[in-house]
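Figure 6 in text form: structure in, sequence out.
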């Protein structure tokens, strides 16, 4: 479980394939604090640390992850938002994030508002029941608040700190992002769908 508050940015150093799986070696400032078997969110994708070497760590994505996330677009020198899992004593400054990406979205517009940034994203309409005005949304692992919510799109506002310390600063119009919709909304929708 995560909070969507990014700790640091990592960089992809090497990518290898093994059957249908892809493994990634990632360099980050907090690699020395990681342990094998630890869960770390990479652009919002919960991946397990498999190996550690110098200032890099290795994670592997299986077919399900490759199909539902932007990870197939990563290459050497790609930047990645990183967050370690939530401690029981931690404050939840963002919202409850599982690291289980629901699907990808497309950045349709970026506006520099001279002090903040506004970004608009388009998503698959099947996820429309899970997002509400002023509700929580996780974009590439970053906990944000959605507004101007429509059937297939929403906007978010990015403060300077978030822009500077996450990979959102590198996002371009047309870019693909990982989306995880609010956990509570998914449970409520599931409960309602079972009523007959």
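Output sequence:
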């Amino acid at each position: 479980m995560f909070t969507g508050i990014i700790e640091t940015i990592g960089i992809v150093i090497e990518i290898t394939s093994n059957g249908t799986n892809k493994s990634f070696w990632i360099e980050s400032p907090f690699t020395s604090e990681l342990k094998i078997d630890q869960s770390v969110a990479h652009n919002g994708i919960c991946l397990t640390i498999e190996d550690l070497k110098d200032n890099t760590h290795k994670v592997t994505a299986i077919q399900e992850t490759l199909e539902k996330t932007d990870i197939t677009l990563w290459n050497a020198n790609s930047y990645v938002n990183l967050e370690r899992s939530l401690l029981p004593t931690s404050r939840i400054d963002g919202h409850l994030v599982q690291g289980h990406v629901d699907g990808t979205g497309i950045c349709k517009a970026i506006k520099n508002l001279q002090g903040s940034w506004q970004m608009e994203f388009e998503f698959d309409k099947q996820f429309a029941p899970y997002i509400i005005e002023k509700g929580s949304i996780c974009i590439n692992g970053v906990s944000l608040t959605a507004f101007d919510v429509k059937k297939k799109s929403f906007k978010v506002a990015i403060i300077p700190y978030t822009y500077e310390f996450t990979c959102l600063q590198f996002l371009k119009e047309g870019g693909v992002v990982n989306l995880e919709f609010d956990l509570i909304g998914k449970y409520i929708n599931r409960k309602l769908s079972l009523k007959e």
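Caption detail: The mean pLDDT is 95.
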